[in-house]
Write a structure and sequence with these properties.
By secondary structure, this protein is an alpha+beta fold. The chain folds into three domains: about 70 residues, no CATH class; about 100 residues, Phosphorylase Kinase, domain 1, CATH 3.30.200.20; about 180 residues, Aminoglycoside phosphotransferase (APH), C-terminal lobe (Aminoglycoside 3'-phosphotransferase, Chain: A, domain 2, Alpha-Beta Complex). It contains 14 helices and 14 strands. The radius of gyration is 25 Å and the shape is globular. The N terminus and C terminus are likely disordered.
């Protein structure tokens, strides 16, 4: 049996040198065996010289490999075996190494990147794994209910912007889309040898925390600047961003909506949007790397600042280092107003201040916030510009 794959002006004839594929034996082989077998044969072919010259180049091999994959799909062969029809099903498997291993290996082979041991990383919205010296993020397919195209577009734009601004973030290696059982967009970056900041601060003195807070503020001041539109998200008016407030009382939701539409939030600038401490890496030499820009948006600066205040869990040293130019009252107002427009706002209230059923008005929330900050002994700028830890 001969199968011809047309690539540009060249024809590769797949004989026994590459392998004989039939409907029966393809179904018998496991995914990894099929992919590894094809790759090993392609690498062998790529080192030969033909009448058409050397074919040892990544672009050409990718085209050949994609054609072979199309052939496999023609035999009803899919790399990804799990079912994803809603957000719950995605959540059940997005951290599963066995579920994603064949897909990851396929991606690394076509990108001509060494495939090594696959390890889990801190979970987020998308599937993220460490593979040797690289990190691969596989975006949730549209069947999950998430618009992966927008996430990938946002991540690519935002990371390139950060690099241009001199902000430390992992370098791009590759990105693309695999059209398998589902369409999986992916992004591969270098792996940074660092510790997530939420773990690192547990071993820090107050002075070290203060210094980290100040360094992070310097980074955000470079990042939180005017920017051209890049994903069309409106943090105040997009109703899809209200869903985390759905479990609150009708009176609370109505008051919140009327408030944010009338409050003067100022100009929109670029914000990371999900600057939680596990998206900040601290390297052994003390450098801070910012990762995971998929939730970046144009929004008021307090959108960024408010999330960080809660991520600091109102730790006095971190808070004073970052919010050095805020008075305590300004800090409370910033936390309150920023929380009301943040995509994660409803969840943050539950995590820090209590269950939704205890908040009937916005004033209930603001009073709970003041009490929390007071009980955590957070004090910021005094009249003579000195920092104090109560």
């Amino acid at each position: 049996m001969l199968m011809r794959l047309r690539v540009s002006s060249m024809t590769i004839i797949l004989t026994s040198n590459i392998g004989l594929f039939t409907k029966k034996n393809i179904r018998l082989w496991r995914t990894r065996q099929v992919i590894s077998f094809i790759c090993s044969r392609l690498m062998s072919v790529s080192r030969r010289q033909t009448n058409y010259g050397s074919i040892n180049n990544k672009g050409y091999l990718n085209k050949v490999y994609q054609r072979i994959y199309i052939l496999l799909v023609g035999y009803n062969y899919m790399i990804f075996k799990e079912q994803i029809t809603n957000w719950q099903e995605w959540g059940d498997i997005f951290q599963s190494i066995p579920a994603f291993m064949p897909l990851i290996e396929y991606i690394f082979r076509i990108e001509n990147i060494p495939f090594e041991r696959v390890e889990n990383l801190t979970p987020g919205t998308n599937a993220v794994f460490k593979v040797g010296n690289f990190v691969i993020k596989i975006f949730a397919p549209e069947e999950s209910g998430i618009d992966q195209t927008l996430d990938l577009q946002t991540e690519l734009f935002s990371t390139k912007r950060a690099i241009k601004l001199g902000i430390s973030t992992p370098k791009f290696i590759a990105n693309g889309v695999v059209k398998d059982k589902y369409h999986f967009a992916y992004l591969i970056t270098e792996h940074i040898n660092g510790v997530e900041l939420n773990a690192a601060i547990n071993k820090m003195t107050d002075n070290e925390k203060f210094a980290v807070g100040r360094k992070l503020r310097d980074i955000c001041d470079k990042m939180n600047t005017p920017c051209k539109p890049f994903n069309g998200i409106d943090v105040i008016n997009d109703k899809g961003r209200y869903r985390r407030w759905d479990i609150y009382s009708e009176s609370f939701k109505e008051e919140r909506l009327a408030y944010i539409k009338s409050y003067n939030y100022g100009n929109n600038i670029f914000v990371h949007g999900d600057l939680c401490l596990d998206n900040i890496l601290l390297t052994p030499d003390g450098e801070l790397y910012i990762i995971d820009f998929a939730d970046a948006v144009l929004a008021p600066v307090i959108y960024e600042h408010a999330l960080l205040a809660y991520e600091f869990n109102f730790d006095s040293a971190l808070t004073q280092g970052y919010f050095y130019d805020y008075s305590t009252n300004d800090f409370i107002d910033m936390c309150f107003n920023g929380l009301l427009i943040h995509d994660f706002g409803g969840d943050i209230v539950t995590a820090h201040f209590g269950e939704p059923n205890i908040f009937h008005t916005l004033n209930d929330l603001k009073m709970a916030m003041k009490q929390k900050i007071k009980s955590d002994n957070v004090s910021l700028l005094t009249g003579d510009n000195e920092y104090v830890i109560i």
